[in-house]
Amino acid sequence: MTSKALPTLPILVENAATATFDCVYPTCGGSCCKQGRPPLEPGEVRRIEENLAKFLPHVREKARKRIESEGFMTRRKKHGLSMMAVSEGWCVFENQGCVLHKVGAKEGDRFKYKPWACAVFPLDRRDDDSWYVRQWKLHGEAWDLFCLNPKESKKPAVSTMQGELEFAARLDSGAEGWRGGSVPKPRKKKAAKAARKPAKKRASRK
Ligand code: SF4
Description:
Layout: H1 42-50, H2 52-55, H3 61-70, E1 73-78, E2 81-84, E3 86-87, E4 90-91, H4 99-106, H5 116-119, E5 123-125, E6 131-133, H6 162-173, H7 189-194
Antiparallel strand pairs: 1-2, 3-4, 5-6
The structure holds iron/sulfur cluster.
Iron/sulfur cluster binds at residues 33, 36, 38, 84, 91, 93-94, 98, 100-101, 114-115, 118.
């Protein structure tokens, strides 16, 4: 990794000094949305439902049929939350990029319809409220996405994901509370201290 000074971050990231990451979409084909079944907060489900008519013209044909007949959610649960549906091996909202992202971006906020679990990727949060950049095998990371391989890029992750870091800070501030119960609460001093210590493993959100 380069020895350049790291930027000032809006949140505390446990492995900011060592993690590497560089999103190469669309070269990768959007592989983080393949079999993508993010868990959704109740507020996120409501917002997508209320705006579904905006998204349907942009989703794949089979995904649209799936959504119209059975909805965009499944009965499967992760962290106690229902998960998004998959069609033809891809998240129902994937169509050469995330439809929720693209419609939100057109309206001036790329994250307004997107599940927070997707919006913060490749950040994740541990049970002690500390943030970290997902990397192969770190904290039990089981996802073998090539972009989570620390050897894949020499760029410090925190220098390539300013939008995601700012969004995570918004979560921390409570400004995204409309999403629902599992959205991170404003950080406590205790949590900030714990973030510097090794913490227990947790399954990834996405
Ligand atoms: S909601 Fe969007 S970013 Fe998340 S898995 Fe689906 S297509 Fe990908």
